[in-house]
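Handout, section 4.2: multi-component inputs.
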Amino acid sequence: MIRLSGIHKTYGTRSGPVQVLRDVNLTIDYGERVGILGRNGAGKSTLIRLISGAEFPTSGTIERDMSVSWPLAFGGAFQGTLTGYDNLRFICRIYGVDPANKVAFVEEFSELGIYLREPVKTYSSGMRARLAFAISMVIEFDCFLIDEIIAVGDASFHEKCNRELFELRKERAMIIVSHNAAYIKDHCTRAAVLSKGELFHLPTLDQAFEFYHQSMTAAA
Amino acid sequence: MDQQAQASAVPGLGRSWSIQRRIIWALVLREMMTRYGRHNIGFLWLFVEPMLFTLGVAALWTATQSVHGSDLPIIAFAITGYSSVLLWRNMPARCIGALAPNLSLLYHRNVRPIDIYVARLLLEVAGATMSFITLVLFFWSFGGLDMPEDVLQVAGGWVMLGWFGAGLALFLGALSEVSETIDKLWHPASYLLFPLSGAAYLVDALPKAAQDVVLWLPMVHGVEFLREGYFGSQVTAHYDMVYMALCNVALTILGLAQVRKISRTVVPE
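Output:
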């Protein structure tokens, strides 16, 4: 279970403090797949970084009694100056996993071939996404945090990602943040909407989508 | 898999110790890879680079018949002096602005700023130490240098200088995340501190008034202590290791406190 209670997050900016999250409460149990909808700038990525533990809330508490992944996104969490192989080894060392058994999977999934020996900064965004996703699947977690990971790549890549996440790991908990309602609809058991720093829980998926569209039109 | 409820800036002992060690080792290897890569002599640069510095300075001082206020051989003087400068001076240089190139790694909950600093400090200490030992052995094998009279005291002085550098590096490194001025000021400061640091003179050769001034600098005590260990009766050393230890403790506490502070606010990219 992961429980967020009374989370506030404020960033200091040149124009003074800006409150990004306001009194956010959220509980996720084993096996639940929760979608969090929000427009660009609603605070989705901040929320997911707080859940992962990469950042700390300004106030409020986060309890975790299951292992939680880093925010799986198409870019971050990797080192551009290192090669694909070195990034894999680094991540394995951090999480205490033997990289020897994982090389074959990453080679096959990422289809990067000889480019695994090149620095990641020379990759295109599609190549980066393939590497990032492949390495993410090397470490097992009870709960995966997914930050728009499917936003890049072609159809066959999407298919492979979906198989790894939603078929092979369908019993795991997941938190998926996206601005894409269709994606949340396909993969989540419930959804919440993040709007202007507040998280609104709605009883059904359909009500969540309706609320999301209303909040978008209201803002536009 | 890790079940650590929350990673604090200064982790508790016990359970998190093995995670900590794993993370720091991973960062050390990563750092060696990005800094030295797999090209030509690779990670040997770790100590070849400081060695070249020390050799250059030794050659320069020999050529200019540098006045250092003693009848010690100039090679021995340069190696003990400049090696210790490299030890305490490179650590702050490597820790200032150290987080920026590593921000993406902070996405992994167990990688905290303190780990990034410690990894860099370990590498600097290893490089400076290997360079010092290699140079001593090299010149000794050609008869250009005698072995230290008291190896333990030399090691003691070296440890104290390393501790001083590490404390200073943590403090300035973490402070540089809050204020860019630190980076700007450190360059002139480190430049100006070099001639004052005791590397290029013996305190005993200075007039009394100047001695009282330079002995405010903690690293002078370390270098004097180290030189006494190395040359023994040939030099009259001036030092107060209690004073230096107190300075080191103060710097370490300030450093850890500042690292803890920025750890709560740093935003991974």
